[in-house]
Amino acid sequence: MYKLLLSWRYLRTRFIAIASIISVTLGVATLIVVNSVMSGFVNEMYTRLHAFCSDIDMASPGLGEIYGVDFRIHQIEGILGEDLIATTGVVQVPALLQFEFRGRPMTQQIMLIGIDDVTYGQVTDFAPFLLNEHQRNKLDFQLKDDGYDPRFGEAGWSYRRRQTQLLRDFSGDMRYANTPVSPTNSAAPNPAADQQAAPNLLPLPTQPPDLNAIAETQTATASDRPGLSDPYAATRQQIHPEEEFDAMRDQYTGIILGLAISNRKFKDPSTGENCDVYLLRPGDDIQLTLPTAGPSPSPITQNCTVIDFYNSKMHEYDANFAFMPLSKLQQIRGMIDPTTGIRSVSAIQMKLRPDADLSNARDKLIAYFPPTDPPFCMIQTWLDSQRPLLSAVMMELTILNILLFLIIAVAGFGILATFYMIVVEKTKDIGVLKALGASRRGVMSIFLAYGCSLGIVGAGVGIGLGLLFVANINRIANGIKYLTGREVFDPTMYYFSEIPTLVSVWCVTWVAVGAVLIAVLASVLPALRAARLNPVEALRYE
Amino acid sequence: MNNPLRAPSIRVTGDRTSDTPTPPVHLSVTRESLLSTVNLCKSYHQGKCSVPVLKGVDLDIESGKFTAIVGKSGSGKSTLLHLLGTLDSPDSGEIWFNAERLDQWSLRRKDQFRNAHVGMIFQFYHLLPELTTLENVLVPRMIQHGLISYWRHRSKYMRRAMELLALVGLEHRLHHKPNQLSGGEMQRTAIARALISDPVLLLADEPTGNLDSDSGRDVVDTLIKLKQQRQVTIVMVTHDENIAAIADRVIALVDGQVQIRR
């Protein structure tokens, strides 16, 4: 009874106890905040990495091909059995993306991926990252009228038609209204038109055109010299009257680009706020240059219409990857055997049951498809392929935890020193208790109970403080930014709109238990000293 | 109704079988003898230097009597009191309590003995500063019992503590901390604390040494009253010849040995 009473009174009346509680509180709160933020980052990263990676990827190195994709998938189904949920073939090829922005031609390197609009969604979590809601529901590579992200402003068919109309109006040349870029089917993208067409993206006029002059020219062209604008128009209409490509109603092959290919973030120097600029919007046309398949690749060009963007929030993906229909890519790269019609792909991706052993499945596949034998594939799980990044993050997390643990250990030694001081200060009281019949164990229990209650109070307050901090971390970051003028969390750097956090109950429990344990361990030595005090000497102590 | 000053019964808890030889034949143990020592020696060591304090003390403390131990500073009075109260162990010699060898008991049994049968009063009161007067008085009972057991008897002990505080005239100071009390009040609190376990032996180490003469007189009067009403055996170390004069027996320590004056 006296142990609890004295522990409680020491806790309430000693300022030094409050200092110890604060050190435990800060340690616990820091560990919870750091672990929650790091877990948030890691979790977000895993989700996004895994969203774009299949569970197992069987890829031909470089620009190589896997022939007879259906046969290979049949073999894989035999090897993996019920573990296998879905498979899909993809074609991956580096390509050059060209487009014009305000009259300036822009070129950048991308990784073009041909995907099957049905099976790819079964293997990866690709769809949720698409920005158009219709494409999210059903991917069809067709430009839509609506459902686009409001950040683009006007997008889709209305944007495309307005842009086309603008070009026609301001160019002052009626050819744009009448000249087909290439023969095309208005209902569906025409492969021939896509490949042969020259870029139809004329620069916007840098100077406002003289509208009166244009009107005069148009009037003259229409009335006086009807054939001058396109001498072959009448003939072409006779040959392919239904295949005219009209950007007002037709699109090229649909392509989905990573948002970072179009998006440029910058800080407005006048306001200091983050601004977004989109070089491309859904409805714009672009041109791709890519190599053909086979032993001697040659460059081909392909027109595409941007039908949507995806935003995985992983900058490396968003800035590099573009998706187009698999069959189209196989066709233009010559990956379909002209005699048998058998198609080839550059990789087969697999999705396994959630509880399946990925490493085991990978090993089974490697045993069946050794890398030294046809089809000469590299077989990896998604963890294997992302290992450099994931292991770097995990190492960071481990080192951070070790450093934080050292901080807590320092706090532990602080508690030890504090307790030692308390024991020295309480020497006479310990002598009195012993004179009144308290046993060694009883005296020791006072200080152990004191340490334990100090740890419990400190850990309890620390948990509350830590969770409160985590819950309001973005507000706190904004507050610090407001006070110091320095950005704590720069969204342009991370592509997260806010700091991700994930509170793990296990982590909180372990941190709290560890803190109480450290407080108790730190009080063991002082408690032993108190227990061994000679009562006569303790009573004489001044 | 419980009489707060009823005569105590002698009970020694713990293991009684280990060290219970027959009483020493050379000592004239009277029927009233509660505590006795035989050839008690104690030295203090400072490095290689040894300072003998008690050099063969033979002593009888009679039951129900007020024994005063007098002597010069450093003559070993307090050391003898600590040995009698089992706070310290002798280098050699024997201490007998109720026909048992006290000095051979285990630490645990000595703790129980101090808690249940000995009341201690110190010159500097030694109250626990974090606790109130009432709580200070209750500490020996708290030490005696575990949490549940104490809780069960809590009201009984509280009532007893309040009776004792009323006996020493501190019924109006129950919830004051020691730093809010005067020296005399603190010493009277210490007396109440020493009595809460109904001890048979009260060991007082210069209880008036730190008090003015009036307060000292009050404290001594309280102790005398207790002795008369409750037959408590009192052993008091004192410098004060006036107090020694009212003791039943006076023992002087000279050069570490006993000279019985009266």
Description:
The complex is a heterodimer of chains A (about 550) and B (about 260). Chain A has about 550 residues and is an alpha+beta fold. Chain A contains 22 helices and eleven strands. Chain A has helices at about 1-15, 15-50, 70-80, 120-125, 135, 155-170, 175-180, 190-195, 210-225, 235-240, 260, 315-320, 325-335, 360-370, 380-385, 385-425, 425-435, 440-470, 475-485, 490-495, 505-530, 535-540, and strands at about 55-60, 85-100, 105-115, 255-260, 265, 275-280, 285-290, 300-310, 320-325, 345-350, 380. In chain A, the strands form two sheets. In chain A, strands 2-3-9-4-8-7 form a six-stranded mixed β-barrel. A two-stranded antiparallel sheet of chain A has the order 5-6. The radius of gyration of chain B is 18 Å and the shape is globular. With about 260 residues, chain B is an alpha/beta fold. Chain B is built from eight helices and ten strands. In chain B, the strands form two sheets. Chain B has a six-stranded mixed sheet with strand order 6-7-8-3-9-10, with helices on both faces. Chain B has helices at about 75-85, 105-115, 135-145, 145-150, 155-165, 185-195, 215-230, 240-245; strands at about 35-45, 50-60, 65-70, 90-95, 100, 120, 200-205, 235, 250-255, 255-260. The interface of A and B includes residues 1, 4, 428 and 433 of A.
Strands, helices and their partners?
The complex is a heterodimer of chains A (542) and B (262).
Chain A: H1 2-13, H2 15-52, E1 56-59, H3 69-80, E2 84-101, E3 104-115, H4 119-123, H5 133-137, H6 157-171, H7 175-178, H8 191-196, H9 211-223, H10 233-239, E4 253-258, H11 259-262, E5 263-267, E6 274-278, E7 285-291, E8 299-310, H12 315-318, E9 321-325, H13 326-333, E10 347-352, H14 358-368, E11 378-381, H15 382-385, H16 387-425, H17 427-435, H18 440-471, H19 473-484, H20 491-494, H21 505-532, H22 535-540
Chain B: E1 33-46, E2 49-62, E3 66-71, H1 77-84, E4 92-97, E5 100-101, H2 107-117, E6 118-121, H3 133-144, H4 147-152, H5 154-167, H6 183-195, E7 201-205, H7 213-230, E8 233-237, H8 241-246, E9 249-254, E10 257-260
Parallel strand pairs in B: 3-8, 3-9, 6-7, 7-8
Antiparallel strand pairs in B: 1-2, 1-4, 4-5, 9-10
Helix pairs in contact in B: 3-5, 3-6, 5-6, 6-7
